[in-house]
C-alpha cells in the first residue's frame, strides 16, 4: 500500500474534472439539442401510420388493434438511461469523478434536480410525441376495457417504463380497475402491495385489504403474493399467526421452486444469489467493525468468489498474475470464478472452458493418454477440471450438449476420485443420459461423491434411500446436504417434517424449511437483480420499490435494504452531509415510520444489526414515541445473539452509565463496556477505553460524594484529598500506553449510541492528545463542581415542591376528590397478546406493532 500517493490521486482527478466540466459547459447546450433530434425524427416517422382509425368502431377488436399499435410505438422508445450525474462511486476514478461532481454542483449549481422518492412528481415533464400518442391509444383501448392496455398503463405509471412519469395514484386506479375487471392476479398483487405499503401516498395503508388482495392473487397463482401471505401468517403480521396457512402457501411456492430447478439441464437450473445487503458495501449498517453483519451468520460468505467482491477485480488480477506464473491453483480458481460467476462478474463460459481445458491438458494429452512425470497435485487439479469440463458438456453450457464427451471426461475424473465427476456420472446412469438406466450404479457413484461431502450427491442419494423406504438414512443425507444450504435438501426435510415421517411432526419447523426453499429460488419470485442494478445506477426509487417488494415477501435482505435506504438515524459526517442539497434529499427519502417497520421485521428475522437499529429508533423516538425501556430491551436482545453485537453492549453500557431506560449502575456499565471490548477488540478499543475513563471518573465521583449509584467494585477507591495535579497524574498513568490512536471527537458527550464511529484522523500526535485530555478533564472537573452546586440547589427545590404537593393532595383528599381514574389506567397497560385477532385502529400505538409483525415472541 502507498496510502499517501493514493490519497493524492483523487485530488488530482477532482481538479482535472473540474476544469473539464467548466470548459465543457458551453458546449452542453448544443450537445443536448443534437441528441434529441433522432427521437423527433422517429416520432414523425411513426406519425404517418400511427393515427388511430376514425371509424369509431368501439369493439374489443379495435381496442386490441389500438393496443398493438401503442405497443409498436412504445417499443421504439429508448429506455431512460440513468441521468448523467449518477455514476458509480467505485475505484479511484469513479470516486474522484463522484466528488468532482459534488464539488461542481456545490460551486456552480444548486444541485441536480432531486426527485422526491416515492412521491408522484407534481409537475411531470411533458411526454414525448410518440409516447403521448401511445398513451392516448392505450387510454382509448383501456376505455374499451382492454385488459392489456389497462395493465400497460398501470405499469407505466408505477414503474415509469418507457420514460413515462410515475403517478402512483393513477397506477393504483388502473391496477384496481383491472383487478376488479377480470381478477387478474398480477394486478391483484399490485393492489395488495400498494395497500400494504401505502406507497407514494396513492392509497391509505390498509393491512386488512392488503391481505385480502394478496390472498386473492395467491389463489390465482401469483408467487409473490403467495410468499407475502405465507410470511404474514408465519410472522403474525396484520393477522393472527397461523402456521398451517403459512405452510400451505410456502409449500406452493416451494413446489414451484423445485419444479423450476428440475426443469433445467441435467443437475438442475443454477440459482444464482442476487439478494445482497446494500449496507454490506459500506461495512454494514454501523460501518466496518461496529456491525455484526460483516462477521455474523448474515455475513457475506468467506470465499474468494463472494467475500471481497468490492475488490474482486484486484483478486482476479492477482490470481491472473499467479496463473501466468504457472500457479495451477490460481488458474483453477479463476476458471471456477468464470464458471460460477460472482456478484460483480458475470459468468463467462467460453473463458471457463478454455481455462479448464488448459489445466486438464497438463495431464491428459489430446488423444487421451496421460502424461508421465506429472506431480500428484497437478493430476488432482486436472481431474477436477475434467469434472467441470464434463459438466459443461453434459449440460450444454458454453458448448453443444454431448453426453459422449461428457462421459469421457467424467471417466477421467473418476480415476482420480473427483467428486463432481462421480456425481455427474451417477446422474447419467440415474436419468438414462447417454448410458442405459441403472439406479444401482448411480447409487454407487452418488455414494462415492457423497462421502466426499458433495451436497447434490447427498441429496440424490438421500432421495434414492427415501424411495427404498429407508427414511433414517435418507434423513442423514438430507441433513448433511442442508448444512451446505442445498435447496432440495431443505425441501425434503420440509416435507418429512410436515408429515412427521422419520422426524417429529412440527408445523413451525416445516414452515421455516419451506421458507428457505422459497427464498432460495430468487429467480422465480423476486426483483433483486433489477433493484440491484437500479441501485448501482443511482436510481434509488426503482431500487427502493424492488427491495420493498422483496421485503413484503419476507426476504430479510429486502427488509434490511429498505430500512437502510429509508434510514433516518444516519448521523455519519460525510461530504454529502455537508452539502445542503444532499441533506435535503436524505430528508425526503426517509420515512421513519416505514423504516421502523422494516427494521422491526428484519430484526425479527435475527438480523442483529437491525435489532440494534431498532433500539436506536426507540431511544430517539424515530417513527414512534421514544421508549427507553424498549430500546434497552432491543440492545439486550442484540447482545444475546450469537455472534453478539459489540455496538449493543456499548449502548447498554452507556445506558447503565447514565441510567437511561435501565437502572443506573456504574459497575454494570463497566462490565458492558468490557464485554464490548472483548467482542470486538479492534474497532471498539478506542471508544471503550475512553468511555471507561469517563466512567471511572464518574464512579469515583459517585463514591466520593456518597452518591446512590453502585460504583465500580474492583477499582481501588481513590482518595479524596489528592490535589488536582496528583490526581491527574494517577489518572493518566493507568493506561497511558494505549493512547496513541485517539481522536478528539470522542471526548464529546454527544458520542451517542447510534452514531457511527467514523475514524478519519489516525495520525494525531499523542502529545497533543495528552494535553487535550488534560484540558478536557479539567473542564469536566470544573463542570462537575458547578454541577454539584446546581444539583444541591435542585434537590432543595424538589424537596420544597414535594412538600407543596403533599399539602395540595391533603387538601384534595379533604375535599373528597381523589383522582380515581389514574391507577386503573395504569393497570390497563396492554400486555401484548400472543395473537391479535382484531384490527387495531391505525391511530392506536398497538397498530405499529401489528403492522410490523409480532415483536418479541
Ligand atoms: C394480467 O394481465 C396482463 C395484461 O393482460 C397479462 O399480461 C398478465 O399475464 C395477466 N396476469 C395473469 C396472472 O393472468
Ligand atoms: C416495466 O418495468 C418493470 C421494472 O423494470 C418491469 O418489471 C415491467 O415488466 C415493465 N412493464 C412493462 C409493461 O414493460
Ligand atoms: C395522477 O393521477 C391522478 C388520477 O389518477 C390525477 O388526479 C393526478 O392529477 C395525477 N397527477 C399528476 C401529477 O399527473
Ligand atoms: C521423469 O523424471 C525422472 C526424474 O525426475 C527423469 O529421470 C526422467 O527422465 C523423467 N522422464 C520423462 C519422460 O520426462
UniProtKB/TrEMBL annotation:
Residue ranges crossing the lipid bilayer per the database entry: 768-789
One GO process term, biological-process aspect: ERAD pathway
Classification via InterPro entries: Sel1-like, Sel1_AlgK, TPR-like_helical_dom_sf
UniProt feature, compositional bias: Basic and acidic residues: 31-44
The keyword Ribonucleoprotein is assigned to this record: no
Bias (Low complexity) ranges: 802-832
Signal peptide start-end: 1-24
Organism in which the protein naturally occurs: Trematosphaeria pertusa
Name of this chain's protein: HCP-like protein
Chain spans, region Disordered: 31-60, 795-857
Protein family membership: Belongs to the sel-1 family.
Superkingdom of this protein's organism: Eukaryota
Keyword Lyase: no
Keywords, alphabetical: Membrane, Signal, Transmembrane, Transmembrane helix
